[in-house]
Amino acid sequence: MAVCPAGVRLFGADAVAPVPAVAPVGAADAARQANAVIDKGLLFLKGQQNADGTWHEPKQPLGVSAIVLRGFALDEKYGVKADFVAKGFAKLLSYQKADNGGIYQEMLGNYNTAIAVSALAATDDPAFKAATDKAVAYLKSLQWNDTIAGANGKTIEVKNPAFGGVGYSAGSRPDGSNTAMMLEALHDAGVSKDDPAYKNAVKFLSRMQNLSESNDQPWAGKDGGSIYTPIGSDDAHPGNSQAGEYTGADGKRLLRSYGLMTYAGLKSMIYSGLTKDDPRVKAAWGWICNNYSVDENPGMKLNDPKDAKSGMNYYYHTMSQALHAYGEPVITDGNGNKHDWRLDMINKLASVQRADGSFIGDRKWMEDSPVLSTGYVVLCLEEILVDLKERPAK
C-alpha cells in the first residue's frame, strides 16, 4: 500500500428524473453494483440514439457520440457487433477527413479526433486500423513543437510554454484537457512510449504543474497539483487555471491547482512513460491524496463555491483513468483515512443515478446533457471494473 506524502429524450437540468435510494456496497458486491449502474446507463443511452446513428445534437461536438460508442464497445453485452453500435461507428467514420485523417466537422479537430480514436481503439477491430492510423497521424501533427509547422505555419522552441501541448484545433492555444485527450488516444491506439509526441508532451505537462523544481514558469508553486494551461492572456499574466489565482504570502501571483487537471496530468505523465519514482509523479500523487474527494472537484470552490461540482462527471472519468494507471487501490487522505477509491466511486455514482439510468451535471461544461454525463460515468465504471479484476477489493 502506497503512503501519500504529507427511452424519453431528456434535455437539461430541468428534466430531472428522481434519484432512487441505493444502499452502499462493500468489496464483495462492488463489481455487481458497478455492472448494474452500467447496465442502466447503457440502456438509457441506447434509447437516446438519433436516427442517423449519432448521439450528439446539431450544436454539440461529435465527440459526444464517440464517448457513448466507446462505452458500448467496451461492454461485453453489446460490443461493436451490435447493429446500432455498428451503425454509430459507421457514421463516426463518415466524418473522417480525406485530406488529413482527422475525425471532426468544422472545428475542434483535436478534441473530436482524439475521442474518436479512443472509441475506435476500444473495439479492437482490425477493420478500423487504417482509419485509426490516419487519425493518430493527424493528432500528432497538431502538437506544438520545434519540428512540425501546424496550421499557423510556425514551429516553436522548447523554451516556449506551449511546447508539447495541443489545443482544440491546429494552431490553437494548448491546454491540459486537450493534451490529455491526445495522449489518451495515442495510448489507446498502442503508440510506442518512445514516440516523440510523448516526450514533447512531458515538457508541457511539467509546465502545467505547480512544482517549481521542474516548472520554469513564474507562477509555479509547490503543491504538486496542475492547472489548465501555462499559456495566459498576455505576458503579464502567464498561465490560466479554471480554479482561479491568488497572491502568496510573498506577494507572488500563484495559480490554483484543481482536481480534474491534476488527475489529467497524472494519467498523462504515466501514459508518457514517467514512473512512480519520478518527482513529478510523486508530487501529483501527493496532491491527490491530500485533496481526495468523490464529492467535489477539489480546488474549484476556493475560487467560487458555486464551482465545487463543476465538471464532476468528466472528473470521475478522468479520476478513474488516472488512478487505474497509477495502480494503487487504496488512498490515504490528508487526515490519515484510507479509501478504496473504487468502492467510494461505485457507491457515489450509484447514489446519484437517476431512475431512468441517466446522470446529469451542471451546465458549465455541457454536463447538463444527460447523454454526455451518462457516457462519462459509464466509461468511469468500466475503468473501475478492469481495475477490480487486476486488484480485487478487500
Description:
The chain is mainly α. Helix content is 42%, strand content 3%. It is built from 12 helices and 4 strands; from the N terminus they run H-H-H-H-H-H-H-E-E-H-H-H-E-E-H-H. It has a two-stranded antiparallel ribbon. Strands 3-4 form a two-stranded antiparallel sheet. A hairpin with a 5-residue loop joins strand 1 (245-247) and strand 2. The protein is globular.
Low-confidence stretches: 1-16
Q: How helix-rich are the residues, as a percent range?
A: 40-55%
Report how far the terminal alpha carbons are from each other.
Answer: 12 Å
The strand count comes to 4
Describe the largest sheet: 2 strands, antiparallel
Query: What is the average per-residue confidence, as pLDDT, rounded to a whole number?
Result: 92
The shape is globular
From the alpha-carbon coordinates, what is the Rg to the nearest angstrom?
Answer: 20 Å
Helices, by number, come to 12
Proportion of residues in extended strands? under 5%
Helix vs. strand class: mainly alpha
Widest beta sheet: strand line-up: 1-2
Order of helices and strands: HHHHHHHEEHHHEEHH
